[in-house]
User: Fold this.
Amino acid sequence: MSDASPTLAQIEQIARSTVADLPAPFATAAREVVLRVEDLPDAQMLADLEMDNPLELTGLYEGVPMTHKSVSYPEPWPDTVWLFRKPILAELATRDGVTLEQLVAHVTIHEFAHHFGWSDDDIATIDRWWE
Assistant:
């Protein structure tokens, strides 16, 4: 990748702006989630998802969806939304007319939707992005 590629910090800033723009009830819940941006998913993440190609995973939600939590539920680590820079850039290269900001916002919203308790099928019914 060239030196002109967006940095981890630039992608994180786009994602944080996206989260800040969520409607109030969602923004409040989203503030409790750790947002991490890395170049690539680690080997354990890929193994857990039974994936071989790290460029196929643009984002990941790790945690217990809000719809499955209770006050007595033990939380050994915070819910985390991961965004992966190199897979996002690889995806961007295949999408004519889509900006980096649009793609990062899409991946961010998708992963936070999992935190809110939405399944991939639920998300697909309102998000026609991939068509």
Notes: The chain is about 45% helix and 10% strand. The radius of gyration is 15 Å. The CA atoms of residues 114 and 120 lie 8 Å apart. The longest strand covers residues 34-38.
